[in-house]
Specification:
- With 153 residues, the protein is mainly alpha-helical.
- The chain has one domain (12-145): Endonuclease III, domain 1 (Orthogonal Bundle).
- 56% of the residues lie in helices and 0% in strands.
- Helix 1 packs across helix 2, helix 1 (12-25) runs antiparallel to helix 5 (73-89) and helix 7 packs across helix 8.
- The longest helix is centred in the middle third of the chain and has 17 residues, at 73-89.
Length: 153
């Protein structure tokens, strides 16, 4: 992983990578996801948010059979949809980081993430916020992510 856990990504691609990591890890061992991460990154165009957002249903079909990925079609579809949502929310003053900051405190950020993004529940939203350097309450859910870096900077 590139970057550091708890460090704000310097590009929208980094936010997409962190969000995707949290999504892929839901219900699967983080060790499996970590072992496949380079292949996942390659299959998903380096998490280039514009390229991922432009993926078609045919692209998703291809990715659903790609052994580099964790082949969960619903999660792959969600990553494409979430890339589009990130692009929309990045239009806010200050970009996506400004958008997140404008949501208020932790509880409001979690509620907003859950409302706007697929495959982000309470725990995964908490982990995502911690990964991107937002202030969050202490949680054991984040422990297995803290030893390694995160998304693109």
């Amino acid at each position: 992983m590139h970057g550091m856990f708890g460090e704000k990504p310097t590009s929208l691609d980094g936010y997409l990578e962190f969000m995707s990591m949290v999504m892929f890890t839901a219900g699967i061992s983080h060790k499996v996801v970590e072992a496949k991460w380079d292949g996942i990154r390659e299959a998903l165009a380096g998490f280039d948010v514009h390229k991922v957002a432009a993926m078609t249903p045919d692209d998703v079909d291809t990715l659903s059979g790609d052994r580099r990925l964790i082949r969960n079609r619903k999660k792959i579809e969600a990553i494409v949809e979430n890339a589009n949502t990130l692009l929309e929310l990045d239009k806010a003053p200050g970009g996506f980081a400004g958008y997140l900051a404008s949501r208020g405190g932790f509880e409001a950020q979690v509620a907003d993430l859950r409302r706007n993004f697929r495959f982000l529940g309470p725990s995964s939203a908490h982990i995502f916020l911690a990964m991107v350097g937002e202030p969050v309450p202490q949680s054991d859910d984040c422990a297995h992510f803290s030893h390694r870096g995160g998304g693109k900077s």
